[in-house]
Specification:
Elements (H helix, E strand, L loop, with lengths): L1 E10 L2 E10 L10 E6 L8 E3 L1 H10 L2 E2 L1 H10 L1 H28 L1
Parallel strand pairs: 1-5
Antiparallel strand pairs: 1-2, 2-3, 3-4
Length: 106
């Protein structure tokens, strides 16, 4: 299974993480498929840099984000946009039969 997770870099007591797409069996610092962003937990502004198009691509393909990465994606607005898009298509599908019923009632 492919996971989107954090890869630790930086110095001792000064962590910096890369957000990577990797096989779930690979070690934390091991092989990865692609780097899609960075996360600096000690910064207050600009702590997350993320390639949103690549994150969406990997989520569409079926990559599972780790809990921390899911939180980062939620704060970046990616998870909300995906949820609204999925919910919007369901609402549109449900709205079509209602409008047809209203037309036949008139």
């Amino acid at each position: 299974m492919v996971r989107i997770r954090l890869r630790r870099e930086g110095r001792k007591k000064s962590p910096m993480y890369r957000i990577v797409v990797a096989d779930s069996r690979a070690p934390r610092e091991g092989r990865f498929i692609e780097i899609i962003g960075t996360y600096h937990p000690r910064k207050t502004e600009g702590a997350v840099e993320l390639k949103q198009d690549r994150a969406n691509y990997w989520l569409d393909v079926g990559a599972q984000p780790s809990d921390t990465v899911r939180s980062i994606l939620r704060r970046a607005g990616i998870m909300k946009a995906r949820h609204e898009a999925r919910l919007g298509s369901k609402l549109q599908a449900a709205a079509v039969p209602l409008s047809e019923e209203e037309k036949s009632a008139e």
